[in-house]
Amino acid sequence: MSTDTSFYSIIDYTVDGPRTQTELVDAFAELQDRWVSFYPGYVSARFHVSTDGSRVYNIVHWASEADYRNFIETSDTEGRVSDIAAALGGITGTAEPRMSGIPTYTVVREVGPRAPESGDAV
């Protein structure tokens, strides 16, 4: 398996139910498209919702940390933050951020699939 040099921003929100999950995903998908998707090194944004309706994770994938840093340094942060606040204000339910500190990560290890071998736990 090759080494993944990608960089990620993981945005975590607590929400008050499935309807709010849907509204938050829709709002943040639009924000990703409007503010982020055209920057060099942007790979994708994946949205994960908990099955109990209480959490939303937005995992933004960048080709490298340098690409992410370029986005942070050259984008209109004030405008983006203003649009995020407006999007959150338009949600009918409650959505609270759960990040502490800067929510950025690098991959340090990945375990992928393989064929079973004798002696494996079953």
Automatic annotation (TrEMBL):
| EC number(s) stated in the UniProt entry for this protein | 1.14.-.-
Q: Which organism is it from?
A: Rhodococcus daqingensis
Q: Name one Pfam family in it.
A: ABM
Keyword terms? Monooxygenase, Oxidoreductase
Please state every residue range assigned to the domain named ABM: 20-71
Q: Which protein are we looking at?
A: Antibiotic biosynthesis monooxygenase family protein
Single annotated GO MF: monooxygenase activity
